[in-house]
Amino acid sequence: MVIIVVLIEIIAAGIIVVLDRDSENVSTEVEKEVSLIARVNTDGSGIYIASKYNADDFISVSSSGKVTYNTDAWGGKVFGTPGASTIQHVQLMGIVQNNLGLKFEKYNSGGTLASDTVYYVDTIQNYTHAINNKGILDGGILWEPQYHYILSDPGYKGMITTNVLFPGHTCCLIAGYQDYLDVHGDETMRFLAAYIKAVNYINDAKQDVSGDKYNTLVSICKDNIKGLTDDVIKQALETVVYTYSDEVGKSNLNALKKDIANLAENLTELGGITVKIDELGFGSYDELAEAFVDNQYLSGALTYGSYDKQATSTIKVAAIDGDIHQIAVQVAKSLGYFEDYGLEVEIRGLANGGSVAQDLLSGQSDLGFMGAPPITSATINGKKIIVHQKTDTKVDKELSLLSRVNTDGSGIYIASKYNADDFISVSSDSKVTFHSEFWGGKVFGTPGASTIQHVQLMDLVQNTMKLKFEKYNSGSTLSSDTVYYVDTIQNYTHAINNKGILDGGILWEPQYHYILSDPGYKGMITTNVLFPGHTCCLIAGYQDYLDSNEDATVRFLAAYIKAVDFINDAKQDVSGDKYNTLVSICKDNIKGLTDDVIKQALETVVYTYSDEKGTSNLKSLKSDIANLAENLTSLGSITVTMRDLGFKSYTEFAEAFVDNSYLDKALKLSSASYSKKSTIKVAAIDGDIHQIAVQVAKSLGYFEDYGLEVEIRGLANGGSVAQDLLSGQSDLGFMGAPPITSATINGKKIIVVESES
């Protein structure tokens, strides 16, 4: 095993910021369990009082909005709050201690009430609690719509809203569990993109209170917050300011960072935070806030665009039950915005922000909606964000991905007794709709559990159709909620020999079109339509070989590039000599095929070596590998986490796994006279036209031109090639992206280790 040094900053629970303290000459990094990723609202709460009082007993408000407090009226009174860590509790505590100069203590039934103290009951989380405690409460503070709901009862009246007391104040936020964010960045951005769309919908609706949008908004509020009248909802909506950032249309959260810094400092002074920031390793509250707030997901969401993939991901979201501040998440769900971005969002209602914060920090939810105080105090008091001295690391890996081979080029076939439109329908814009009820109880062949075709079918069944995907056992009862697979159907012969079992299958070219040449089968759809431009086969190299044979590897890729260019030139003129030569090479290396089958197969495969012809760019491949690893994990094919390997994200893993340096040198290399030949052992999939370029390079003497003797060994599928390569039996391997990615991760063949000092 060879060690490759890379620039990676890593720690067990997700590194997000490197703090450069030149004055101390110390390089540090931050470990955190949660990040603040977006705003939800400002304003939108109010202080209510018992009807026997008047608001001007407690306060007076000047024409300029300045509030003056009558301290004598507040002393000895009992006020309800929705929880000791909520923003409303903190706001009332700030007023009592800082503005009134009174004590703020928990109410105990039967105790004497002192005139120098305001007492609180911190379990008044909604209208019902306020009504049931009329005999105790002189007033309280609560979020909308519960505030206006309480005012609808004759036992209470309004004193003042927080819009007047703290205009524009930071209120609710979206926070993410760091383990989730680190490995589901794309889903997080999609969630926020849908959320932004919902916020914009709400703000548009509020501009026209007689319009259809507003009526829909009110209806969604009523569906999700039970017992409210239209008037209460409309009054509540009027007081809440809905947002996602400091400025509409931008990802700026600088003002939020400042507010979080001030909040943390104030909560420390008020006793709500007991852990000092220097205990966490921060030099200031501003430094803490800079590490705590992360706008990268919001930035990505604002530029995300549309989502056109078939797969659906599930996100678990915790929110405050009955809080209209957070209604945008319900709007996004009700109007199908999350679905538009390929998300299934499970929303769990909890009592208050403190409950949401604990739910998030325990990893029970992926994202959480709560007030700024509970998540700030829980994070600091729980020491969930800490500064560490930076550790130098390096990547130890046993193989690297060097080049693309192809995109597209597989297909789903079905038994001739069925029609394709029994299973799917395809719109004029190529959008595919799956008729899941027809798939249930059917048996499909795949070429192996780790192959890209198997993974693609599994993804469609589990994520798109929401059916189970289980291995077929002969003689067992077939259930309508399950699609069954036989993972040994690697070629035409296997498909023909299993006609009595298979309802269909998925396979690479040319075996797909070879199967269609038999009257027992017909085509359903190609993966070119289902997953256009999808990463398919790759060239990987055994790291020990690469490190000792860089020159031979570069020469191999130079010859391979020449073969890919030959194929693409040949396909431009199907009546030309080059094309006839290509078909002949295919027939020589894949036995039993007719010219028609070969030509149909060649038409569906896109041959390449990089993201862009003539360049060594593999950035899109890195992104595809990161997404693939994440999807294989969610599907259960990968069981080792990025943290187990020492990576903080799938993106970081892919950056280390893909190495375009050999491809870059190959593009600059010209053939020369080589006095001594080098031998390279190559493993490839037998009968797979995706990988025909390696045979073209051999047949046309391109490898020989570069002083190479290439021994090609045909194996059954990509999983076999991956194992052959990882065992060192071959130097280079041609296989699909899933088998080599899953084998590398599950086998811990690429890990981050500490650098030796």
Quick structural gist:
This protein has 757 residues and is an alpha/beta fold.
What does this molecule look like?
The chain has a six-stranded mixed β-sheet with strand order 10-11-9-12-6-13. It contains 36 helices and 36 strands. Helix content is 41%, strand content 23%. Helix 11 packs across helix 18 (372-381). Among the domains are: 44-165, D-Maltodextrin-Binding Protein, domain 2; 409-530, D-Maltodextrin-Binding Protein, domain 2; 537-754, no CATH class. The protein has 757 residues and is α/β, with parallel strands linked by helices.
The general outline is elongated
Distance between the termini: 20 Å
Low-confidence stretches at least 5 residues in length (pLDDT < 50)? 1-26
Compute the CA-based radius of gyration.
Answer: 32 Å
Q: What's the rounded overall pLDDT mean?
A: 93
The largest sheet has its strands arranged as 10-11-9-12-6-13
Number of helical segments? 36
- The percent range for helix content is 40-55%
- The secondary structure category is alpha/beta
How would a textbook summarize the main sheet?
Answer: 6 strands, mixed
Number of strands: 36
* Strand proportion: 15-25%
